[in-house]
């Protein structure tokens, strides 16, 4: 059952921000966390987060590449392909998600999104930004 909930969460909750799915799968006190402690969104902000993400990426679709089940934990790796409104081509973003389900609701959720690749593909980082960062250079904007 939780594998289906995880897929529904990715496709309907995260990808489209369907409020009915969010309300059914997430308990009221829930917060969505990234692997970085700086990423933490309470359930009440999740729909706004999805709307904001979709504004910069456009509508997307997923290709689930790996799913690991060890109830109550489930891990998924998927490729999110989206077409940003201001671009003629797609962006592709690797995402990993780790979720714990208990009694039909998600009790823990951790997501890792390749933001560096996303912002590079959106043209928000200079060419070769990763290589520059790896050599210790700083990215500065003026």
Task: Walk me through this protein's architecture.
With 142 residues, the protein is α+β, with helices and mostly antiparallel strands. It has one domain: Nuclear Transport Factor 2, Chain: A. It is built from five helices and six strands. A six-stranded mixed beta sheet has the order 2-1-6-5-4-3. The longest helix has 15 residues, at 43-57. The model has no long low-confidence stretch (mean pLDDT 85). This is SnoaL-like domain-containing protein. InterPro entries: NTF2-like_dom_sf. It comes from Shimia sagamensis.
What's the short version?
InterPro entries: NTF2-like_dom_sf. The protein has 142 residues and is an alpha+beta fold.
Secondary structure: elements and pairs:
Elements: H1 2-14, H2 19-25, E1 31-34, E2 40-42, H3 43-57, E3 60-70, E4 73-82, E5 91-102, E6 105-113, H4 115-121, H5 129-134
Parallel strand pairs: 1-6
Antiparallel strand pairs: 1-2, 3-4, 4-5, 5-6
Helix pairs in contact: 1-2
For this entry, give a set of tags.
NTF2-like_dom_sf, globular, 142 residues, Nuclear Transport Factor 2, Chain: A, SnoaL-like domain-containing protein, alpha+beta, 6 strands
């Amino acid at each position: 059952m939780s594998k289906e909930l995880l897929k529904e969460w990715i496709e309907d909750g995260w990808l489209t921000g369907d409020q009915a799915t969010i309300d059914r799968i997430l308990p009221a006190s829930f917060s969505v966390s990234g692997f970085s402690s700086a990423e933490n969104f309470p359930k009440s902000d999740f729909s706004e987060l999805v709307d904001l993400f979709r504004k910069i990426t456009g509508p997307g679709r997923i290709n689930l590449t790996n799913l690991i089940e060890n109830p109550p934990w489930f891990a998924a790796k998927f490729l999110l392909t989206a077409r940003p409104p201001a671009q003629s081509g797609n962006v592709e973003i690797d995402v990993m998600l780790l979720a714990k389900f208990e009694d039909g609701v998600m009790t823990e959720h951790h997501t890792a999104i390749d933001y560096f690749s996303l912002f590079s593909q959106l043209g928000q980082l200079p060419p070769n930004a990763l290589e520059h960062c790896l050599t210790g250079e700083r990215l500065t904007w003026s």
